[in-house]
Amino acid sequence: MAGKEEENKKFSIWDLPDVPMGQLPPHLELQRSRVFCNRDAPIHTESVQYSGAYASMGVDNSLRLDHFCNNFRVEVVRLTEEDMEFDMIGIDAAIANAFRRILIAELPTIAIEKVLIANNTSIVQDEVLAHRLGLVPIGVDPRLFEYISENDQPNEKNTIVFKLHVRCERGSPRITVKSDELKWLPKGSELVKESRNATSDSSSKPETYTSFSCSQETMPELAKNPIAPKYPDIIIAKLGPGQEIELEAHAVKGMGKTHAKWSPVATAWYRMLPEVVLLEEVEDDLAEELKVKCPVNVFDIEDLGKGKKRATVARPRACTLCRECIRGEEWEQRIALRRVKDHFIFTIESTGALPPEVLFTEAVKILEDKCERVISELS
Predict the structure, then answer these.
(1) Is 21 in contact with 57 (CB distance < 8 Å)?
(2) 307 Cβ partners below 8 Å, 6+ apart?
(3) Alpha-carbon distance 367 to 91, whole Å?
């Protein structure tokens, strides 16, 4: 009878344990800070931005400067001449995406914009040839040059001139024209404009397509580092016997949002840090099965002795969240796949104009300028 009375006793909300004030329960903290990657679809993907979302529990969810300064950090994982991988920890996805967009579209570089073709008898059309030349990365620091507008005259401060003149002699085998054939003209254009005034003084200096007041070689930064394409082996065209290309290419400063040829990165992307958690011990045959299931070798086998084996998470960072490990019967109860919402693995691949670490610092400066403009407009 006593057992039946206990079963019939009404449940009261006051019987629940008290929630500690000032901190979230573990399940809510996981929902706030993690994306759960289930077998069918991810859940809890949204970021909780409302400052009073957890006010009833005594938790302040507002964005505070001191909290940001104490938690934000950047950790470089890999750095080479061409690419860089680093972790950005303690920021929102919107900030990470702002860096990505700035790197792709708002960092200036130098690229060929105008091509003056004197002769082209190759099978490559003039328009296609000019487009290919525009995509050749130029190895020069864009911070040394100024932007050029429609009304500006090309000069040594805003224009870089290259010359390309290649001929395949008759009776010779076909030749490949590569980017190393682009020769820098530090004194400006050598192509003479056609004069419309027949009575002009023949002793005067012929007019060219640029107005250089001095040679670009006088610039200290360029004296020891001549301007040239970053990669000398980019194929521009192929010439058969008797074919010839003679042109002048003018490179100017621009940004990727105008045309992709000015984008300083081959790609800039990020992903949230994967988190792989074993919810229970996976041993023996199941451990071997789990190791085989993962295509990127996230799991290892630990020998416990006496013929016992146990699966361990050895390389969680390598996880691509393909979810192969949780496919199949009961595997979703053994393994949890998550992403950390405020931890981003960022990768920058430079086209070569600037090192990847310089690109990131320049992106920070641009974002800082944007913030200062917003503050000045609101004040």
Answers:
(1) yes
(2) none
(3) 14
User: For residue 142, what pLDDT is reported?
Assistant: 94
Q: 3-class DSSP state for residue 133?
A: helix
User: Which residues does 157 contact at the CB level (< 8 Å), separation at least 6?
Assistant: 145, 146
| Predicted local distance difference test score (pLDDT) of residue 64 | 83
Q: Rounded to an integer, what distance in angstroms lies between the CA atom of residue 100 and that of residue 347?
A: 9
Cα 210 off chain centre by: 35
Query: Comparing C-alpha atoms, which of 251, 184, 186 is closest to residue 217?
Result: 186
Q: Mean pLDDT of successive 10-residue segments in the chain (379 residues)? A: 56 62 81 90 86 82 84 94 94 93 96 96 95 95 93 93 96 94 94 68 75 90 90 95 96 95 95 94 90 92 87 93 89 92 95 93 95 92
Please give the C-alpha separations between residue 56 and each of 17, 19, 31, in angstroms, as whole numbers.
16, 10, 17
Whether the CB-CB separation of 256 and 106 falls below 8 Å is answered with yes
CA-based nearest residue to 101, from 348, 308, 313, 268: 268
* φ and ψ at residue 349, rounded to 5 degrees: -115, 110
Neighbouring C-beta atoms of residue 79, cutoff 10 Å:
14
Rounded distance, CA 248 to CA 237, Å? 15
In this predicted structure, what is the pLDDT of residue 168?
Answer: 95
Closest CA to 208 of 189, 195, 194: 189
Residue with tokens 């009878």: 1
145 closest CA partner among 196, 108, 197: 108
Tell me the C-alpha to C-alpha distance, in Å, between residue 288 and each of 209, 283, 301, 328, 360: 71, 8, 7, 15, 42
Using the Cα atoms of residue 226, residue 230, residue 232 and residue 237 in order, give the sign of their dihedral. Answer: negative
pLDDT at 17: 62
- Which DSSP helix (H) or strand (E) runs through 365? helix 356-378
CA 202 to chain centroid: 54
- End-to-end Cα, the chain, rounded Å: 74
Are 167 and 244 in contact by the 8 Å Cβ rule? The answer is yes
Structure tokens at 305: 């002795």
Residue 171, judged by CB atoms within 10 A of its CB (0-12, 13-18, 19+), counts as exposed
Whole-number Å distance between alpha carbons of 254 and 98:
19
What type of residue sits at position 56? S
